[in-house]
Amino acid sequence: MEQKCFWVGWLVTLATTGLLLLWSLPLAPFATPGMLANEAVIVFFPVMLLRWIALATLLYWSTLQWCTRLSFSTQWCVVSIIAVLLLHLVLGVINLGILNLWLSVLASKTRTTEIVCVVIYFGLPLAVLGICTVGRFLSLPQSR
To answer: What percent of the chain has pLDDT over 90?
Structure first.
């Protein structure tokens, strides 16, 4: 069950990131000059929420595995899970702010600013996904 939850969350995260990337193609910096964002980009938010919920599930399972591997007591396991999920919440809020900056209509925004926003917007969740995947394989019992 634990393994299925991990891989379903992994696939959901990757699929929603791909869907958001596909939907972002008409926007700058993918297209030059690129379509200006309007109220239609509100559809990004439910998919983004689904992606961060799937990542939270992955982080929960990964932290739980590490707690059992390191033989943490129940209190430290709960504290670890809460700390990881709070860090996840902070990263999600940062990601939402980056999305707001990227899609905002500012006269002072340059192409470089948009590229940096896109790299952070898509790279942050993929980095968390990579950390969860590496952590998952490092926490597996070693065969001797």
So the answer is: 50
76-90: b or e for each residue (b if 16 or more CB lie within 10 Å)?
ebeebbeebeeebee
Angle, to 10 degrees, between the axis of helix 44-69 and the axis of helix 74-103?
A: 150
Percent of the chain with pLDDT over 70: 97
Q: Name 30's Cβ contacts closer than 8 Å, sequence gap at least 6.
A: 24, 118
Token pair, residue 16, equals: 């929603």
CA 32 vs. chain centroid, Å, equals 27
Instruction: Match 């999600």 to its residue by tokens.
Output: 92
Per the listing, tokens 């938010």 go with: 45
Say what the pLDDT of residue 137 is: 82
Give the distance from CA 5 to its chain's centroid: 16
Longest dimension (CA), the chain: 61
- 55 in Cβ contact with 132 (< 8 Å): yes
